[in-house]
């Protein structure tokens, strides 16, 4: 039992350490869109990343590490598309259009997925190295961490200036953040994969 608790705590700490960038992005996303959508997108991405780590650890051979940098294209494309839409809506009318909720959720999840390779890279060997009996505490620790990060992101967004949230002026900045994150992923992934 002590082994399970120790491993769950270690997995929680490893997940927190690899998701500090996601926490910052989550706060920014919460300030621009509905809180529940942002948190759901983050948690969906974490479920996918941890599931992929589990599948790969169970023996599937996927040559993913050398191609992970191309995931940076996703947030760059989402940000670029948002800028194009903004330009079109500004030329057609001064009333900004809102994205349908489903597309917004997919874009948010893809954004969080694109910056979660470090979580995948940590949890795949951790799950592969551990005996089958330790899979549950590792995944439970990671799930606890994901929930803690979601709660912290919501609390930090609440501490943000009320005016910024009410006026929605940060929304114009989101496409630029996505494009910057994409460039970071493309340029920095080779060092993460080593």
TrEMBL record:
<feature type="transmembrane region" description="Helical">
    <location>
        <begin position="105"/>
        <end position="128"/>
    </location>
</feature>
<keyword id="KW-0472">Membrane</keyword>
<protein>
    <submittedName>
        <fullName>Cadmium resistance transporter family protein</fullName>
    </submittedName>
</protein>
<keyword id="KW-0812">Transmembrane</keyword>
<feature type="transmembrane region" description="Helical">
    <location>
        <begin position="169"/>
        <end position="187"/>
    </location>
</feature>
<feature type="transmembrane region" description="Helical">
    <location>
        <begin position="62"/>
        <end position="84"/>
    </location>
</feature>
<feature type="transmembrane region" description="Helical">
    <location>
        <begin position="134"/>
        <end position="157"/>
    </location>
</feature>
<keyword id="KW-1133">Transmembrane helix</keyword>
<feature type="transmembrane region" description="Helical">
    <location>
        <begin position="6"/>
        <end position="31"/>
    </location>
</feature>
<feature type="transmembrane region" description="Helical">
    <location>
        <begin position="38"/>
        <end position="56"/>
    </location>
</feature>
